[in-house]
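Quick one: structure for this chain?
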Amino acid sequence: MPTITAAVLAAFAGYAVAWYLGIVEGNFALLLFLATVVTGLYWLAERLYFLPRRRQAAEALVVQAEERRGQLAAQGITQVDNVDVAQGRQRLLMQPWWLDWTAGLFPVILAVFVLRSFLFEPFKIPSGSMIPTLLVGDLILVNKFAYGVRLPVINTKLTDGTPPARGDVMVFRYPPKPSLDYIKRVVGVPGDEVAYLNKKLTVNGQPVSKDALPDFFDEDSMRYSRQFREVLGPRTHAILNDDERPAFIPGAEDFPFKENCRYSVEGVVCKVPAGHYFMMGDNRDNSLDSRFWGFVPDRNIVGKAFFIWMNFSSLKRIGSFE
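Got it. Here's what it folds into:
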């Protein structure tokens, strides 16, 4: 078993290193699931087989020591050192390294697996597409059950939950490459007609409220952007516009239901198909979103982003957001 365990742990470590070096495309949900299964099997084996055997060996050692003391007592020897017996019993009961690194880690791995798969998952904001709502480096929490509980890895929905609403900030699997997680704002729900023309958003023919705010200064790029307050559904949030960027959408990819969209020099108009969502970043002119790669199917939903739990560059960022 030590040799087999060493091989299993080496396989996990090799996969992690290959993922870090970019040799393979990593899947943390799958890795965590496999780790939970493997350590769980070791934990069961420990409880049902290995631990009882160690206890039997320890008890046998104690019995042998008692018999030896009885034999010595019969010979008139009463001074017997019990230290070696106690130490030997402790060594026999001690978990070997290969069980310590598998069965011993199972409760922790199981707790992380349940928490991450069904309750809350942490994410780090990697880009500026959601500025000013979310900044690069924000560490956020995502509610995994708000839109319905899903099985990890295969993402099959178990419960319906509350459907995503316009204005929600949602994490989802990037449709062109589902191994990547993206975060954007829900702009259109199934059946909506979303128009983004001349940098003005309209949903089902109704202009979305957009009021000017003081310009936003981006400390990373060291430049100002025009900032507006937008009211989308029940959410009030800030967005940015860059006057130097054109309104038309350059380089839109082919995607399912692209026939539902009409592109022009003014922008794009899309009819959201059933079971799909239209997503946009709050940094409207610096966001690769549904305007470029299409709609997000319901099966790609990861969860609802709702809380910044840390930003090491600014502790003031901690808190909930719209």
